[in-house]
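Let's do one together. I've listed all components of the complex below, 564 residues spread over two lines.
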Amino acid sequence: MGDANRPRRSADAENPFERYDLDPREGIEAITQRLRELAEDATDEAERERIRSAWEELTLHPARRLRAALFAHPETRPPLGMPPPLARRRVPSPRALGLRELAPRPSLSAALAAGADAGRGVAPSDAAESDRPPPLDDDPWL
Amino acid sequence: MPWRTEDEDLLQRLEDEVLTERLFAFLVSSAPGATPPPALPARASGLVSELRRLPSGAEVVSAVLAGRSEIEALARFVEAVRLDGCPPALLHHLALFYAKVAAALEHGAPEVAATAWVRSLAAWLALAEEHDYLSRLENAVLGDAARRPRGPQDIGISPERVPLEVLADLARRAEAAARDLTPSGKAALLALSRTDEAVRLAGASPATAKRVRADAERRRNGVIEAALGVIGEALDDASARGELATAGPTLLPRAIDVWAWASKDEAVEQFVVDRIDDLGWELYRARDWEALRRLLDPFRPMFDSLAARIETDPSRIAYAAGCAQMFVFLAEVEPGLDRKIELAEKAVRICPTHRNGRLVLATFLCARAMDALRTMTFFTHNSEIERAAALIERAESLNPRASEVAAAKEILERVKRARHGA
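Okay, and this is what the predicted structure of the assembly comes out as:
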């Protein structure tokens, strides 16, 4: 359930309001707008033709529109709200990235760089704060 | 990330979709002969969101979702919803949901499908009684056109007409199946005969009940006429060709299939009685008792059914004579005298003034009396003679001019004289 383009097996499910998830109370303009969007998204000509027939059925014949509205489930589901905001992306460092940050994944590269520093005798605590490898969770590529 | 109201709403939509699918599958799959349930439109799940708003609705839904109750609990809850006073949007959902259940069941389980059609009609009736919801929907859909005064050019459907549109749909469904007598038509036809039940479930007014019953009956009769029309035309053709006696016995039994398809409707019984009459007389005049018996035998349950209707409702007098004639034919082809009398008695009981019925019963009663009198001896008890005398008296009251009455009376007198003389 839930997909307006999902194929139906029952003739009773061919009500255009139900098939294309249209609200009959929204009027002809809204019906036209929604069906136009669906037609633009349609991948084959047959589906576009079905959408055109539905549009004619619902907009050119008021009596048929009313009949279809009567025999379509009303919209009584809780309204869909806004999706949650995307997770905050880490602001890239203003420092220009060198080749070593770009080639492998930055966090891994930084972790490797930290290891390299250690190999050169630089204690991790001595490293500048900005040079510390970021946690993997903040890696924009992961 | 905090759990927002929108997230809760989305979760509820998804849960309702799952539950609606499960409820639909349960209702459709639990019937005998069920086929895999078809897909439901997304908005059908608004049914469950409406059910959540009913007292204890949310608890039932939660219990099923949490696995504390089976889906059957939700089905029982839906079935127990009182339609009068029910929120109109829920009525709208129920009307359409049950129609979808019926459509999914009509091929495999027509009787169960008919019950779903009745529930759907009941929800429409309750919605029509509420009136405002359908009026608002009409206004919203038609805009200015809905506000024009009602008239012959009116494109709208007034709320009280909506259930009649549903009946028209049922009739179309039945009529489409009338030629092949498919189960889907049987379900729709059965639903058309159960409008009183729908009215009762909806708590609709007596005026609505009367209007709906009359409309359903008219449509039902139309469908049955269409189903019988095929046989009627074939019989008329055979009659025009002078082949009724040969073609009739092969054409008429199709009416038995129509009778079963129409859930033993009286109109089929009347049709058969009408049509067998001509054919029966043709065979009767030809004294072809075996052919007459073969013609009548398959229709005995139909004759019994019509006879029972007439006996319990004397206002059905129009078909009393025709039905009585069938029992006269049956009496004629029956070999045993006891059974002959039984069938002739039934003919006279159905139609007390039926001339042939009275005639054959009188004849059989005389035959019974004469049989008894001929075996009497000197030692026969008086009560047996009195019983024979009563049979002759009854025969005389039924048909005083029957030749058998005179013959029986003569034997009776002879027996009496013999005893008196002794």
